[in-house]
Specification:
There is one protein chain. With 554 residues, the chain is an alpha/beta fold. It folds into three domains: 129 residues, no CATH class; 150 residues, Reverse transcriptase/Diguanylate cyclase domain (Alpha-Beta Plaits); 253 residues, EAL domain (TIM Barrel), CATH 3.20.20. It is built from 21 helices and 16 strands. The strands form three sheets. It has an eight-stranded mixed barrel with strand order 8-9-11-12-13-14-15-16, surrounded by four helices. A five-stranded mixed sheet has the order 4-5-3-6-7, with helices on both faces. The longest helix has 28 residues. The chain is elongated, with a radius of gyration of 36 Å. The N terminus is likely disordered. The structure holds ligand C2E and magnesium ion (2 copies).
Length: 554
């Protein structure tokens, strides 16, 4: 049986001191009892030693309660030994001598026993509550970590198996929290069943995340498969008046002690990373073992986060400007600002590497704010040179465009810089609408009212259908490079690009193709009546001074 009571060294020392002090009080009170004629002198005053017996009894009771408060399990045992022991001896004394003078001492000890029982019961309940998830009744993350730590101390070989409900958010959003809670309770019940069958330990470690620890002989993969199969069965209605069946989609990730790590937090994190890979990796497998490649990627991500944090404070970021052109006359439409990171030793880190990492953290807010402020400040002169007839595009992450304060932040940056709103374009991607669709649409609509243009970047790579895009308040569609790359040879892509341009125009949007590298691609896009292009064929991203010079050319 695995327990999860971790006793610190400090606590054990305090307990030992209390034990010794209590023992001292008991020995002293026995001594006083045996020498009833003894007196203590305070100057002129003489006090019979027996008058201290009551105080000593009270002190013993107090020490028992202190021991219980320090550690309700051990403290309770010690307190019971001391109090029940002294009740026994006092009782024997009464029988032997026939004297009832010890009776108050017996009452006192009984009161101590009752107090110790009440206090230790309360502490035991609070302890249990602290490691129990209130919704499902399973062990919570804290309890699970303590369990892992105990197993690590005992050097038992084990696997941590993470389970994540993939469609939990959809259930919560579409059917409400009642069904979300039901889904969680159903998973918990099914995990409890396997816990009883297989002698494994299960826990709810996060919102829609559960974990199990399996020891020794149990094969983790078949265990995970068994759980996933059990969850495949659906959950049914909450209200009796209508019947609803939901099927839970579960993914699982496995980490191993001691092969992957000897630290409980890392083992949980690695199992979580393995779940992520099961969900987003190329294999269709729902179960994924953590491996070295994931570990390297994980450490690189931590390293990148550290570098980005440092670079924000030490100013290692800067912006480059890639020109965009109107396709027919090669007239300059404007620039897309792209962030660059150059470390003091000259190493360049591409945004393609660090942006996806920081997008998962709050750091992306700082990056987006930095780009917004710096771009408006730097590009003001560029738009003035061109009589406010060019557009400056900035990329904004899904997290920011879908956050409630975003429009206010843009308005403030525009006011501070004096940059004309009609020359600003904000590039968002389809994922922004997945993040928080309602807020994103509201923000985009408000930005459009301020005169700011909105471009839908990387179009053609996500899952948004053309019919969905038609209802979004955007002004420019940016066809992704991956669709342009092979346009000369791939007829399907060619027709797809043609369809996007046609649809874009139908919805009163302009269309730009990005990543255009060859004259052949350029010719085809011109034939398909694409409005603008951005690509190496007419211009790579330029440093600020070169971009200013380009603006000055007529
Ligand atoms: P994106 O917004 O789609 O930017 C276009 C990317 O394609 C840029 O890469 C650009 O340099 C590259 N590109 C443009 N034309 C060509 C071409 O003809 N050939 C090739 N091979 N590449 C071309 P970059 O600068 O490395 O940026 C990559 C991605 O990083 C961007 O994709 C964007 O998603 C993100 N990013 C860049 N700057 C920022 C920023 O300031 N804020 C945020 N949130 N994301 C940014
Ligand atoms: Mg972009
Ligand atoms: Mg793009």
């Amino acid at each position: 049986m695995v327990t999860f009571n971790v006793r610190s060294k400090n606590k054990s020392i305090k307990l030992l001191i209390c034990f010794i002090v209590t023992l001292g009080f008991i020995i002293f009170s026995k001594y006083v009892e045996n020498n009833k004629g003894m007196e203590f002198g305070f100057g002129e005053m003489k006090l019979p030693a027996v008058s201290f017996l009551g105080i000593l009894q009270a002190m013993i009771g107090l020490m028992c309660i202190v021991m219980v408060c320090l550690d309700y399990k051990i403290g309770r045992v010690l307190a019971y030994i001391f109090t029940l022991g002294s009740i026994f001896f006092m009782f024997m004394g009464i029988i032997r001598s026939g004297e009832m003078s010890s009776l108050p001492g017996i009452y006192n000890s009984i009161i101590t026993v009752v107090s110790v029982t009440i206090i230790s019961g309360g502490l035991s309940k609070a302890d249990k509550r602290a490691v129990t998830d209130f919704l499902t009744g399973l062990r919570n993350r804290r309890g699970f970590v303590a369990l892992l730590e105990n197993s690590i101390r005992e050097k038992k070989h084990f696997h941590v198996i993470y389970f994540e409900i993939e469609n939990f958010r959809t259930i919560n959003d579409n059917l409400g929290h009642k069904y979300g809670d039901l889904a969680l309770k159903t998973v918990a019940d099914k995990l409890r069943e396997v816990e009883n069958e297989d002698n494994v330990y299960v826990s709810r470690v996060g919102g829609a995340e559960f974990a199990a620890v399996v020891f020794g002989a149990i094969d983790p993969e078949s265990f995970a498969a068994k759980v996933i199969e059990k969850m495949g069965t659906s959950i049914t209605n909450v209200d009796d008046d209508f019947d609803i069946r939901l099927t839970l989609s579960i993914y699982s990730g496995i980490s191993t002690y001691p092969d992957d790590s000897t630290n409980s937090d890392d083992l949980l994190k690695y199992a979580d990373i393995a779940v992520f890979n099961a969900r987003h990796g190329h294999t269709k497998n729902r179960i994924c073992f953590f491996n070295n490649e994931m570990k390297e990627r994980f450490f690189r991500q931590i390293e990148l986060e550290r570098i980005v944090k440092e670079s924000l404070t030490k100013n290692y970021f800067y912006l480059v400007y890639q020109p965009q052109y109107e396709i027919k006359e090669k007239r300059l439409r404007g620039f897309e600002t792209l962030i660059r990171l150059r470390l003091p030793d000259g190493t360049m880190i591409s945004p393609g590497e660090f942006i996806p990492v920081v997008e998962k953290t709050e750091l992306i807010n700082k990056i987006d704010s930095y780009v917004l402020r710096r771009a408006l400040k730097e590009a003001k002169m560029m738009v003035e040179t061109r009589n406010n007839e060019i557009t400056i595009s900035i990329n904004v992450s899904a997290k920011n465009i879908s956050s409630p304060g975003f429009v206010e932040e843009v308005t403030k940056a525009l006011d501070e810089s004096g940059f004309p709103p009609e020359c600003l374009e904000i590039e968002i991607t389809e994922y922004s609408f997945a993040e928080d669709r309602e807020i994103t649409i509201e923000n985009v609509t408000r930005l459009r009212k301020l005169g700011i243009q909105i471009a839908l970047d990387d179009f053609g790579t996500g899952y948004t259908s053309l019919s969905q895009v038609m209802h979004l308040p955007i002004s420019l569609l940016k066809i992704d490079k991956s669709l342009i790359d092979d346009i000369e040879n791939n007829q399907v892509n060619r027709e797809f690009v043609d369809a996007i341009i046609y649809m874009g125009h139908l919805m009163n949007c302009e269309v730009i193709s990005e990543g255009v590298e060859s004259d052949e691609q350029l010719g085809l896009l011109k034939d398909h009546e694409c409005d603008f292009i951005q690509g190496f064929v007419w211009g790579k991203p330029l440093e600020y001074d070169t971009a200013v010079e380009l603006c000055e050319e007529k």
